[in-house]
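Q: Structure tokens for this one, please.
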Amino acid sequence: MKMLFYEVDGQWAALARRRLPSDVSIVEVRELDELWQKLPRFGAAIIALELTAENAEASLAALTRLAREYPNSIAIVLATREMANWEMLCREADAAHFLTSTRQIGDIAVIVKRRMQLGVDSRQVESMPLEDRILANLPWSEMVP
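A: Here is the predicted structure, written as tokens:
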């Protein structure tokens, strides 16, 4: 499984590497243009987008574009506490999860592990039952009946 990180300094990706299973490949990009170049090869990837005051408009546009062009991928927003008031707007733009602290990095690991347990890979999402697709994207560790 592959996960793409769009962030300026690589801090989130470095933390995720420590928490994710070893068979998860992390691809880091520093520019949105680079993300758009790589994304077609990943299909239903998990994409983590850093949200800052400087890139807020571009990141929001990227979330909207991801939802439109890559509906089987999921987006996770990586923000600072100062950007917490953007959460609802990002979720409206189809963010599956919104983190405001590096201490929440375990949430990403839960999502990735769940997708792996359900056998989600980038090419087979379309054939999965809706319930399995929803469960694969949940950020909490226990399934709720």
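A few notes: Helices lie at 11-19, 32-38, 56-69, 87-92, 105-117, 130-136. The chain has a mean pLDDT of 84.
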